[in-house]
Amino acid sequence: MACTKSLYARRMPDAATHELCHPLPSNPKAPTQTFMARASLLLIDDDRHILHAMGEWLREQGYHVDTAASYQAALAALGRKRYDIVLCDIRLGDGDGFDLLAQLRKDAPETLVILITGYGDPETAVAAMREGAFDLLTKPLIDDELKVAIERALAQRQVLAENQQLRAQLDLRFGLDNVIGRDPKMRRVYEIIDSVADTRATLLITGESGTGKSLIARAVHRRSSRRNGPFVEVACGALPDTLLESELFGHVAGAFTGAVVDKPGKFLMANGGTIFLDEISTASPGLQVKLLRVLQDFEFEPVGGQKTYRVDTRVILATNEDLEQLVAEGRFRQDLYYRVNVINIELPPLRERVGDIALLAMHFLRQVCEETGKQVGGFTEDALAALQSYRWPGNVRELQNVVERAVLLGKGERIGVEDLPASLRSSRIPAIEPLGNRTLKQALESPERQIILEMLELHNWNRHATAESLGINRTTLYKKMKRLGLEEVAQRHRTPHRGPCQPQEHERGSTQRDHERPSAAARPRHAGPGQAG
Question: From residue 331, how far is each of 79, 292, 320, 327 by CA, in Å?
């Protein structure tokens, strides 16, 4: 096998040749060429011949290389610029490589340091790793050895940079900045989150379904010092009680039928982070007892096991029910209620945050447009008015679904009332124009026409159903439609292909019954006196 010569032997002819009969393989996880081309290196050595030779060779490999021949020169270079990697000889004329390493750990922890020594021994290697060096190389250096060390360091820097980017994306998606709302009630929620995020206190989040309890729990986690730990979410209401206990605390092999191996529970998986128990009100009395112990002592045993585990976990719980009422009814333990209700965050329903509806709608609109590539400029004034007048029984989740549907099915540049579900259109408060010179009767014609039109659309132009929902008889509805110009609109919605004697589909009142009633000639007649039976 051809031997790889020392970098010094190739650059400095009078230096001793050091041969390596087993060249190091190339790094299979080397960083991308683009990343390598951007990498900046600072090379520090008080031997100017070595400094020059190594610097030239590294530049030939495509790196941006600065050199420093002393400890003080290195400090000056580090003061002017940040480097990806620093390669430093341990023994310098005016300083020590370990001192420079300590300085970098303090001022530039993202910079990786590779120490170089001509007197390598196990004690030096251990000390270098303990002080935070990425690697320790021994002179004379081999080309492949130096190349692989730099590639490994750059690969680690790339992974660290990607991790930071992912954390930033998580903060953007699940952090408090992603919680939309300017309502005073939501501002109070933000204040509580800032106050309690970095504590270990148990947190109870209450609110109607769809108000964003899971989002708030994640925001608390991302806001805390546990943000780098796991966030484990458990939907307690989605599992039967027997499975829920195993899911939370784990089980040992043989604990029950089908338990063939040991399985760690969610509490153990959340160690060092946060566990979020949603729909906690569905827990059975037996499970509530075990939860009480975990919340008090943070200790538990897996199902079927005897070993006690202790965890360091932040517990956040959520429910859409009134726990105090459940305690009064005997369905929730009072001692557990007092334990979980240490700090309560109550999320207001969307109907009490009317001022936030437009903000949330635009936020969801941008999300859907980004995911689908559709270009939608926003909402018309009438559409926003319809959104703000609706009661939103499904809260924020329902609003998100409505906006997504409108974007996907809408055809215009902006979302209009016609793109919204019929339930929202019928709930819209009609706009009242200024009275001007009109009489009261004339001024009320526009909103009256709008209400009747929306109810007709809601009932698929069934006049009988529309009249019943409006609380008027059909005759009154017909007169109003004719007076308000809705008869022509109704004609366009009639079924186009029907026989000459077939009644309209949407009119199933007396007209249909008249068609079905047999004629006088067809009706049997009772025999009169003196007539044959």
Answer: 66, 15, 15, 6
The burial class, CB within 10 Å (0-12 / 13-18 / 19+), for 48 is exposed
Q: Three-state SS for 294?
A: helix
pTM recorded for the entire structure = 0.56
Alpha helices in 434-528 (DSSP H): 440-443, 445-458, 463-470, 474-483, 487-492, 510-516
Contact 208, 320 (CB under 8 A): yes
Strands 4-5 and 19-20: antiparallel
Cα separation, 166 vs 178, in Å, equals 15
Q: How many CB atoms lie within 10 A of CB 319?
A: 23
Right CATH number for 4-165 from 3.40.190.10, 3.40.50.2300, 3.30.499.10, 3.40.50.1980?
Answer: 3.40.50.2300
Joined tokens for residue 378: 């926003």
Contact 345, 213 (CB under 8 A): no
Tokens for 437? 């010179």
Residue 11, Ramachandran bin (φ over 0: left; ψ between -120 and 50: alpha; else beta)? alpha
What is each CA distance from 518 to 507, 511, 514, in whole angstroms?
19, 13, 8
- Local confidence pLDDT in tens for the 533 residues of the chain: 334 445 544 444 333 333 323 333 344 444 544 445 578 999 999 888 889 888 899 998 889 999 999 999 999 999 898 899 999 998 888 888 898 998 888 888 888 999 998 877 788 888 888 888 888 888 888 888 888 989 888 888 888 777 666 655 555 444 566 788 888 999 999 999 989 998 989 999 999 999 999 999 999 998 898 988 999 999 999 888 878 999 999 999 988 888 889 999 999 999 999 999 999 999 999 999 999 999 999 999 999 999 999 999 999 999 999 999 999 999 999 999 999 999 999 999 999 998 899 999 999 999 999 999 999 999 998 899 899 889 999 999 999 999 999 999 998 899 999 999 988 876 655 555 566 667 777 777 777 887 888 788 878 888 888 888 888 898 898 888 888 888 877 776 664 444 434 444 444 444 444 444 444 444 444 444 444 33
What is the CATH code for 175-348? 3.40.50.300
State phi, psi for 519 to the nearest 5 degrees: -70, 165
What backbone phi and psi angles, to 5 degrees, belong to 242?
Answer: -65, -40
Q: What are the residue boundaries of the structural domains of the chain, listed by start?
A: 4-165, 175-348, 351-427, 435-492
Question: CATH number of the domain at 435-492, please?
Answer: 1.10.10
Return the structure tokens found at 504. 């309209």
Structure tokens belonging to residue 303: 């199902």
Distance CA 533, CA 520 (A): 19
Q: Are 311 and 298 in contact (CB under 8 A)?
A: yes
CB 18 within 8 A of CB 9: yes
> What token pair was written down for 80?
């002017």
